[in-house]
Amino acid sequence: MADMSPLFRRAAAKSPQDRLVTLIGKPDCHLCDAAQGVVEKVCDELGVAWEVKDINQDPQLHDQYWEQIPVVLVDGAQHTFWRVNEDRLRKALTGR
Length: 96
What we know:
The protein is an alpha+beta fold. It has four helices and four strands. α2 packs across α4. It holds the Pfam family Glrx-like.
């Protein structure tokens, strides 16, 4: 891509081990469980750190994402919501 923004180039240049994936969800949510399975699989394959945050435990997350859960953030920026595509997440983490 010839016209890539500096922010995108910087994010794409990070190695997977320097990334952080955050899954925002809630207990007893079947979409959240499915999303966690994808996040866990991709992150474990690539050696990427990941975490789960409960939207019920954080008022700010609740206000921001309630209608979108599960939400996946990559390095703090929203990557996707509702359904997580394994290939798209892998590409976001590796740049390929």
